[in-house]
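Colleagues,

For the teaching module next term, I've prepared a clean inverse folding example: a structure given as tokens, and then the sequence designed for it. I'd like students to try predicting residues themselves before seeing the answer, so please don't circulate the second half yet.
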């Protein structure tokens, strides 16, 4: 049972790290290339001035930070549970 839990935590941590990296890349692309939606799709939702892409950088950046914190917590939880009978946060198992 504990082995299955560790595998789940490891899988969850890898997914969170991958999504953190993806959101970080999207944040950089949205700020560095403000016309990427028009270039990729040919659709111009903001009239071609790049405002939508700059607005998208905010939730992408927030998502990257939140997922990074979750990945850190998952990593911390997976390493601390294996050391003693006390789980992360001080709760006794």
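(Answer key — instructors only)
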């Amino acid at each position: 049972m504990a082995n299955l839990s560790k595998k789940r935590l490891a899988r969850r941590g890898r997914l969170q790290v991958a999504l953190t990296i993806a959101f970080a890349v999207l944040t950089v692309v949205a700020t560095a290339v403000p016309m990427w939606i028009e270039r990729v799709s040919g659709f111009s939702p903001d009239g071609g001035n790049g405002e939508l892409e700059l607005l998208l950088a905010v939730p992408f950046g927030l998502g990257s930070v939140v997922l990074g914190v979750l990945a850190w917590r998952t990593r911390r939880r997976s390493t601390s549970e294996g050391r003693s009978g006390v789980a992360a946060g001080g709760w006794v198992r």
